[in-house]
Amino acid sequence: MIDPFKPGKDELLFLPLGGSGEIGMNLNLYGHNGKWLMLDLGISFGDDSMPGIDVVMPDPTFISERAADLVGIVLTHAHEDHIGAVPYLWNRFRCPLYATPFTASVLRRKLAEVGLEQEAKITIIPMSGSREIGPFTVELITLTHSIPEPNAVVIRTAHGAVLHTGDWKLDPEPLVGETTDVAALRRLGDGGVLAMICDSTNVFVSGTSGSEADVRASLMDVVGRLKNRVAIGCFASNLARVETIARVAAAHDRHCALIGRSLWRMLESAQENGYLTDLPKFVTEHDVGYFPRENILMICTGSQGEPRSALTRIARGEHPVQLEAGDAAIFSSRVIPGNELSINRLHNDLAKRGVEVITDRDEDVHVSGHPARDELAEMYQMVRPRIALPVHGEARHIQEHVAFARECQVPEALAPENGMLIRLAPGPAEIVARVPAGRLALDGKVLVSADSEAIRHRHRLSFNGVIMGSVVVDKSGKLLAPPQVSFEGLMDAAAAGDAIATIQAAIAEALVELPKSKRSDDAEVAEAARLAARRWYHKTYDKKPVTKIHVIRV
């Protein structure tokens, strides 16, 4: 069978399956000469619309059906939204993985957790290195971000060079890792760039994103003013921030503790690659209580209010480490869109304990890892692409970035969406097709469609409650006992008695009125009972609970 989407030798295609129209879940494909190359394979996190779901990722069905033509996955850096789905989805491709040394260290630990460390081999590309991967030549350009070894990827084919930026900023003092290789970007621009696929996260932010060195100076001042135990919430992957906090602690005669497994795993990966090797030894959570409160500073996971994270459990009093009145919690991280409610809950839980909450609205305790408008403008001036394709943003970010690219004199700019197949060459950039693109949710240990009936039903249950009932009828459909009814999530047991009795009567009446021709059909009996119960509850309480009736025929 001929594949209508097989890339031709005379064309270069771009296809996002995740990360275009959302922040997170990055999955981008490039197609040329019959083959596909994937850049990044990341996750996002569930929200209140998906009860019981912690992890969400792109649905890779399009490319898993073409796994024989997938020549490899290149990972731009080690953030979860760029590598987090690899352990869950790699078995669908079983293709080579390519990463720099630090990213490879982080990924190996993730693969080991699912037993794939021996099967999923990672090929190391050194910083500023290059590699031939199928019909693509891949080159790395060092950038700065909030994690070591972030890279832009240059993809070269016969149609020219494409720059895929990944996540980046222009930080003159990143503190951990190298500064942006501006010379390489300018050389690339001088040689001509067909297209730039670029981070859109902070396109609405004027000026620059700020330097990690500024955060260090500010935290040094803020922690110096605090008298009791201090907890600082930050992303485990922000190793420059971890180093900053460790040095701030030492400067103020505090021991620094790591609270959260992901922090320890990230520290191990960093030290394997020569980062953070000259810091004082970190304290474990089990030893925190042995130090005076004024002599301890804790780095905690959970700045986004994740339910099972260290900081959330501390705020609820469910963790061996405690914060109490007079202590302080500093949030040295940004609010990821969609996490506002969980973060506010966390702040309030801490405040109820008398803990002082300090955020970037109060002090300069965080800078973004993504480019603001001045940095975007500088990148466009250096690279000078013919085509701009903004990604890594919600729809409004991408639309604004398209307008901004045009202001920067980019001749062509398109707004990608997940599933939008875009031909970059030959000719003007154009949308040539749309392919299926969705999301998968990790439901316990099983991957399911994020819009599956089960998850939609679970969402309805969480909002509407449940009426459960059973009826016992004979072969002719005559009730042999009063209907049994119970509620879940509708009203307290003490108040439910009268409502249940009324619903029992409504069900009995509905079955008496059911035509004889339908009484022998269990489905008809169940539906008549279900409608009677649900209609009464809706009429009386203006709610539409999920209603389930079980028919027992004897």
Radius of gyration: 28 Å
Count up the domains. 3
Number of helices: 16
CATH fold topology of the largest domain: Metallo-beta-lactamase, Chain A
Give structural notes.
The protein is an alpha/beta fold and 554 residues long. It contains 16 helices and 29 strands. Strands 9-8-7-4-3-1-23-24 form an 8-stranded mixed beta sheet. A 7-stranded mixed beta sheet has the order 10-11-12-13-14-20-22. A 5-stranded parallel beta sheet has the order 16-17-15-18-19, with helices on both faces. It is globular. The two termini are 54 Å apart. The model has no long low-confidence stretch (mean pLDDT 94).
Show the helix and strand layout:
Elements: E1 12-18, E2 20-21, E3 27-32, E4 35-41, E5 44-45, E6 55-58, H1 61-64, E7 70-74, H2 80-83, H3 86-89, E8 97-99, H4 101-113, E9 122-124, E10 130-133, E11 136-142, E12 151-157, E13 160-164, H5 182-191, E14 193-199, H6 212-225, E15 230-233, H7 239-251, E16 255-259, H8 261-272, E17 296-300, H9 310-315, E18 328-331, H10 340-352, E19 356-358, H11 373-383, E20 385-391, E21 393-394, H12 395-407, E22 412-413, E23 420-425, E24 430-434, E25 439-443, E26 446-449, H13 453-464, E27 466-473, E28 484-488, H14 493-513, H15 516-519, H16 522-541, E29 546-553
Parallel strand pairs: 2-21, 4-7, 7-8, 8-9, 13-14, 14-20, 15-17, 15-18, 16-17, 18-19, 20-22, 27-29
Antiparallel strand pairs: 1-3, 1-23, 3-4, 5-6, 6-25, 10-11, 11-12, 12-13, 23-24, 25-26, 27-28
